[in-house]
Amino acid sequence: MRRLATLLALSSAISLSLAPIAACAESIPLGMPAPKPVTTSTTAKGMVAAANPLAVEAGLRVLRDGGSAVDAAVAIQAVLGLVEPQSSGLGGGAFLVFYDAKTGKVTAYDGREKAPAGATPDMFLGPDGKPLPFVKALLSGRSSGVPGAIAMLSLAQKEHGKAAWNTLFKDAETLADDGFVVSPRLAGMIVSRAPQASQPDPVKYFTKPDGTRYQAGDILKNPAYAQTVRKIAAEGPAALLDGPLAQAIVDRLHEGDLSSSITLEDLKTYQPRSAPALCRPWKVYSVCAPNPQSSGLAVIQALQMLEHTDIGKRGPTDPVAWTLLAQAERVMYADRDRYVGDPAFVTVPVDGLLDPKYVAQRAKLVTPTAGEAPPFGHPKGAPKVGIDMTKEPGGTTHLVVVDTAGNVVSMTTTVESIFGNGRMVGGFFLNNQLTDFSFSPKEKDGAPAANAIAPGKRPRSSMAPLIVLDKKGKLVAALGSPGGNAILSYNLKAMVGLFYWGLNMQQAVSLPNVVARGDSFSGDADLFGPEMLAALNARGVNVKVGQLETSGLHGVIVRPNGVLEGGADPRREGVAKGL
């Protein structure tokens, strides 16, 4: 536990003065290798926290020019798709939660990919009726859904933007034409064991004229990407979903074995969704998240369950506190895995899952010792659904923007796995989002899984960008993380650190992660240190030496004097930077 206490002390040492418009950056030794110094920031104006400094600068440029938080998010996404293509891009999907400072309203935008009209429940089953090997499905054309991130951003920007759409892609276009510096994280992905990295398109893209792969520090140009963002700037999402690029997407996904059934009509008819965000009371706050098929409701449920424990009287050096956190995770996953799917196709018992009486009942399973995996519950309104067989690798990225008017974007965006399914069109990677469906559509008794595949259906997502408001409806915090299924655990940990343990944003995102789902436990072993590991294992939370959880948390919190304080996860390459 000494190592964890040292981490907190070091993080406290860089807690910043909350004087307006102050900013600094220092390195926090975390007992684990980090590709960059941790950067934290405070400001009385706007702020951007995202996974690559080039993307952060693109967002800040938009804010300096008078653009809104949504305007900045468009620019950030365009750059991230170029410089961090292993995580998100033009060919992927996203969830965005927007806080309007003038009205206090929180709106959830759903840019999740959808299955083509020709999708079938057995499309990921082999001739023997058993689920296909995951990698085989992942690399196939049929793993891709209709991309929705750009269409969703276009909708949000029309409703909350201030800048002209065609001005928001300048940084991405310039970086693609002139070249950008390959980061250490991207360089590692290029030569990783991920199956996509060895596919023809990424091999061609990431190989220099001399036959060697691009390395950290090299300059990589992508003129095809520049041309694509020019088209999107001029034509909007139709540039992707209707026309030559759309045809190229269809053609590329029809190639090879297990080809897609996707058509031009599937792309042309895609529509993003928007609705009031899912907001529920917790402590003296209101926590807002996207609606299902996002899994934000699971984080809210876990937070509400923890209110029935004494975790707030403990702290991050107490193994009981971490055990309570792990147990809350196990319960939230049990319910989430059973019931969450696309609400256009299945009944998701949101009110039942978040009913105070049900939450109190489920909280009885949040114990200071971990035993057998908790079963799923039976909330009011729950349909009969089968066991879930979804696998969800940990790609993805998260960003937070606060503009000078106080409007906020919290957005999680993804191509699903590393480089999506490894296929490229127009200089960008296509997603493998349909592998987020349950491969096995029915249980033995015939009950369909909530996340079973269906034509036009959107797969369940662990993406859960959060916004926290006070009792007057004013912004308190915004945060989120990538990480596949572990996103819920990462977000929950950060919320616990901020609101139960009183940490600042940088401390909260830098905390070790523990991920507990069913009988599986994982965590940042080196960050916890041997004493805490021993204490956790003694309580049944079996985190093993050598484990690592590479979250990518980014967040902003508003202090009582109105100053914004940002945090960026030291496990990745992001920064939080104010105007």
Mean pLDDT score, rounded? 92
What is the total tally of β strands?
Answer: 21
The radius of gyration over CA amounts to 22 Å
Structural class of the secondary structure composition?
alpha+beta
Tell me the number of helical segments per DSSP (H or I, 4 or more residues long): 19
Q: According to CATH, what is the topology?
A: Glutamine Phosphoribosylpyrophosphate, subunit 1, domain 1
Indicate the topology.
Layout (H helix, E strand, L loop, with lengths): L1 H12 L9 E3 L13 E5 L3 E4 L2 H12 L4 H15 L9 E7 L6 E5 L23 H5 L10 H12 L9 H9 L1 E2 L2 H7 L9 H6 L13 E2 L2 H13 L2 H4 L2 H10 L10 H5 L4 E4 L1 E5 L2 E5 L6 H11 L12 H21 L10 H4 L2 H8 L33 E6 L5 E7 L9 E2 L2 E2 L36 E4 L5 E6 L6 H13 L5 H6 L3 E4 L2 E4 L1 H14 L15 E5 L5 E5 L6 E4 L1
Antiparallel strand pairs: 1-2, 2-20, 3-11, 3-21, 4-5, 4-12, 5-8, 6-7, 9-10, 10-15, 11-12, 13-14, 15-16, 16-19, 17-18, 19-20
Describe this structure in words.
The structure is a single chain. The radius of gyration is 22 Å and the shape is globular. Mean pLDDT is 92; it is low at 10-39. The protein has 19 helices and 21 strands. The protein is of the alpha+beta class. It has one domain (2-275, 389-578): Glutamine Phosphoribosylpyrophosphate, subunit 1, domain 1 (4-Layer Sandwich).
